[in-house]
Design a protein that fits this description.
3 domains, AAA+_ATPase, nucleotide-binding, membrane, globular
């Protein structure tokens, strides 16, 4: 089935999320929609899937105009979507999830689960999936859950398949398997739209590439295009993609974590007996698939987790049991995983956000009064130093792009008297140009003799930034290895296989 989008425009108030976008996807083709987070890719696909109604433009399937009032209409027309965040019910079996919304009944009006099981088996056999129809979804690895999403789409005779950032929660091995599946689907005649911002994946699997920037198509590219060419199309300028750093020069500063355990309010263990050291002048990257305890570890280091046992010693001083204010005063710079939720106040100005955790004394507060001149001078200096693109220091930070918002957080945290930097997902949702800048500042912090911990689910980033990589799986440390460790070994470690075993398998 041929898919064609003509002049699709979608507005949210004054924001034009999609600006007269044209896109054609032929049967038996993998067409990559490449662009940074916020470029308008997912909005466009939500219009295609009937979740949004376009303000202008039309959707055609095999040259026939379509009008989708909702996802049900899109599915009935042969469009299937594999969402970044799986739309599965954990306590249902695979067969029950596949049947959901399209239930078949027997002559007595009872749910015909055997028909659902048969459909799963048939599709799984066709594409070489190993999926048990009776397995509970919550018991399946993430990669298998994604296959269930694909089976669900194919069970409804989808001939146009949309993969929306499908590798965000996969290990490298699972990503490779997904690429193989996409090629199989292509060979079966499906038209595939592959949404991503990861250049490596684009060049590996795409037949054609359309680049979207700020809601508009800015060009098409061949899969033979270099990463630098694709990045410049995405950003609008030349970008340095390589992280340049010298060999680490260790200083006396030291972070030492011993037998750290974090539990939630119900007593479930989220971080389980974790121990490691970070010397001044090195970057330790905490890697792993999202949801394996990395977030809770970073929050424990920042004093943000209430149920922590074990020891966190920075330059010999114990941090466990201290308040967030005391941890910051000990020299912690903390870049949170979710800048909008935990790092910024969107309605506050750039200047106000730059001093959010600095208002307990001089130079910004004297005798209980905020020193506006000192604050504004500081803000202007940081806007220049960190190349924050803003109309002015009084602009609400919520109006800035994701990359510039992250620069505000980074500027604030790197401007204190640092003894330790913890940066959780520091480049999530930012453009390639901002990634280049953020990586450079992290390396400069490391070169200043400060211990740096970076939490990242991006393996390319882990290898580029890290001097050592600590892989976590289900709250425990699988191993701590040099950043020169092969990618396939790191990928197996992310699935819980110990380093020595992973090396043997790889």
């Amino acid at each position: 089935m041929k898919l064609e989008l003509r002049g699709i425009t979608k507005r949210f108030g004054a924001l034009v999320a999609n600006d007269h976008i044209d896109l054609t996807v032929e049967p038996g083709e993998i067409h990559c929609l490449l662009g940074e987070n916020g470029a308008g890719k997912s909005t466009l696909m939500n219009v295609l899937y009937g979740l949004y109604q376009a303000d202008e433009g039309e959707i055609l399937l095999d040259d026939v105009p379509q009008a989708f009032a909702g996802p049900g209409d899109a599915m009935a027309a042969g469009i299937g979507m594999v969402h970044q965040h799986f739309m599965l019910i954990p306590v249902f079996t695979v067969a029950e999830n596949v049947m959901l919304g399209h239930e078949q009944t027997s002559s007595g009006g009872r749910l015909d689960l055997e028909a659902g099981r048969a459909k799963v088996r048939e599709i799984a056999a066709r594409f070489g999936f190993h999926v048990d129809p009776d397995a509970l979804v919550e018991d399946l690895p993430v990669g298998v859950q994604q296959r269930v999403e694909i089976i669900k789409a194919l069970s409804r005779d989808a001939r146009v398949l949309v993969f929306d950032e499908p590798t965000a929660v996969l290990t490298p091995q699972e990503t490779d398997e997904l690429m193989t599946i996409m090629r199989q689907l292509k060979e079966s005649g499906a038209a595939i739209v592959f949404i991503t911002h990861k250049l490596r994946e684009v060049r590996e699997v795409a037949d054609r590439i359309t680049v979207v920037r700020r809601g508009a198509v800015v060009g098409e590219a061949s899969p033979t295009a270099s990463d630098a060419e694709l990045a410049s199309l995405m950003v609008g300028r030349a970008v340095e993609l390589t992280v340049h750093k010298d060999a680490p020069k260790h200083s006396e500063s030291l972070l030492e974590v011993t037998d750290l355990q974090v539990t939630d309010s119900r007593g479930a263990v989220l971080v389980d007996d974790v121990s490691f050291q970070v010397r001044g002048g090195e970057v330790l990257v905490v890697a792993g698939v999202q949801g394996n305890g990395q977030t809770e570890l970073a929050e424990a280091l920042g004093g943000l987790q209430p149920n922590v046992t074990g020891s966190i010693r920075l330059d010999g001083a114990e941090l466990v049991g201290r308040s967030v204010r005391q941890v910051l005063d000990a020299g912690l710079g903390f870049v949170p995983e979710d800048r909008n939720e935990d790092g910024l106040v969107g309605s506050f100005s750039v200047a106000e956000n730059l001093v959010l955790d600095r208002t307990d004394g001089p130079p910004f507060v004297r005798r209980g009064a905020l020193q506006l001149r000192a604050r504004d001078t500081f803000a202007r200096e940081k806007v220049d130093e960190f190349d924050i693109r803003t109309q002015g220091i009084d602009t609400p930070v919520g109006r800035l792009s994701g990359g510039n918002q992250q620069k505000v957080v980074l500027a604030r945290e790197l401007s204190r008297d640092l003894r330790l930097l913890v940066a959780a997902q520091p480049t999530r949702g930012v453009d390639v140009g901002s990634i280049e800048f953020i990586h450079k500042r992290i390396v400069e912090t490391r070169d200043a003799g400060i211990p740096v911990i970076v939490v990242s689910t991006e393996l390319d980033e882990a290898v580029a930034l890290g001097d050592r990589i600590m892989v976590m799986y289900r709250g425990r440390v699988v191993g701590i290895v040099p950043a020169t460790t092969p990618r396939d070994v790191l990928g197996l470690m992310m699935a819980g296989i110990a380093p020595q075993d992973a090396a043997d398998v790889a």
